[in-house]
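BUG: 3D viewer hangs when loading the predicted structure for this chain

Environment: internal workstation, default settings.
Expected: structure renders.
Actual: progress bar stalls at 90%.

Input used:
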Amino acid sequence: MKKSIFLVLAFLVFSCHQPAKKYTQEEAEAQVLVLPMVQEASKHIYKITNGKHGISFITEEDLIEKKPFYQITVGYNSAVRFETYHIFYVNKENKEDVRILDPVSGEIIPVSEYKK
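Structure tokens produced before the viewer hung:
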């Protein structure tokens, strides 16, 4: 009887533990695309290219503080080179955790703390 109770309790404990949802690359890019600074960059690129080009992404995977992130480099992809405007980091397990590389300090900080 004790074994049965133990097994049932063990089953309940392990079945209740759900792994964190992993967000897809597309979801992370969509999260970054709606940010005002990205919208502004997109309009700028559209204007300087006479409507021929828009914003481009280069997305890679990265670890920050032992947590999985998407590193999303946002910029203009010309025929000559990729011109980086911003580098964002979106937590794969919490897409509300969006960070940006501050080009002045070199630190990765929350987008909410970033000053243009």
